[in-house]
Amino acid sequence: MADEPQAQSPRDLLRRADVEWHEIATKALGPDAKLISVSRYLPDSRVYAADGRVAKIRRHPEGGLEFNDLSNEADLLREMGRDVTFDRMGNWEYSVQDEIVGSPFSAHLMEQQDTKHTFGQRVRVLRRVVSEIRRLHRNGISHGDLRADNVMLKGGDVALIDFDLARRTSPLRAAYRDWIGIGRSKGTPYPFWQLAIFTLVPRIRTLGLRLRNIFHPYTPHLEGTSSPDLLALDQAWKLARQSPANARGQGLAYYAMTYRGHHWRGERGWYARWDVISSAVDFTGKSVLELGCNMGLLSSFAMLNGATSAHGVDHDAVIVQAAELVAQGLESKATFEQVDLNGEDRWEDRLGGRDIVTALSVVHWLPDRQRVLDFLGTHDELIYEGHDTLEIETDRLRSLGFEQIDLIGSTERDRHILHARKAGVSNS
Q: Domain 10-98 maps to which CATH number in 3.30.200, 3.50.50, 2.60.40, 3.10.20?
């Protein structure tokens, strides 16, 4: 059946969704609830944190409720002695538990990641994971989802998270399910042997991810859809999966996003990134330039949140086309063009003079960093993500003339996101 005609603009739909998520997060954790992650795989699944507690929140489509995962997880964790609460309201469900602080193991496995673990470090992490699994099995618990995303690291400690596919069973059946993947009581178990191979042999991991993304391309079911916004977004994600500007060798878009109940998967959740930026930066009445725009989501969302203009540039022609389709689907009127920041063309003369310039994970990858840094220094307001320590990045921005530099958040790879302004520039 074709979709119903869209009654609200994308701007209104996104703002309404923001309000709804905020209301549920506030009910779960109070007014200080802060979005910390968005699922790359599941539609409308987020995690908020406040005062050392986290809330896992899911919204299910009307008429298609498939509850139980979070409630089963809460029951199991309570049996394990953890303080967990669970509640359900309409098509929403959420559980609240103590926060496990750390970084996911997956953040240290990417080839392009500065904090990529050595072979020896990966072996040591796997040994600790084995100890955690054995402890669970002695208590008759199978985790069932032993992916690198679900292994949290803090110093020398390892903790398993996300028990929504866990099951209470006999120690023997738990061992079969977790070590080799036998036992499909719900979903397909992700066993330890896959985690070990993908961790220790990165080429196999990359090949496995690419094959999975080829045969299961993470696209929503849009059969019979006539809505131009959804069709444009779907085409944008198809192009983004082809672009070398995204996750290397994975055939996966850079960002994941849910819109109008449809979910496009990617390497990282877009809404978590946008929440950090939009909470600290006021785009109202400002012109924006996005360097290394990738899918152009920042430019489009800036336009939907009051910017007078937004222009994104990237060196890859395919990803620029994807960004244009995103802007078309979201009706944002953001514009894009292909630009080589290391080229001889005097792009600085054409692109300068905006109120806000953004450079998220851009400078680090450029052979001539100083050229782009000097360009950033000609602006009064900057949103910047760097790869070096906070002290080095802060000193770097101060050398460009920025006086007020605020750390507004960190990425899933523990990189700093900074909001820098020159004297006399307010955030309003």
A: 3.30.200
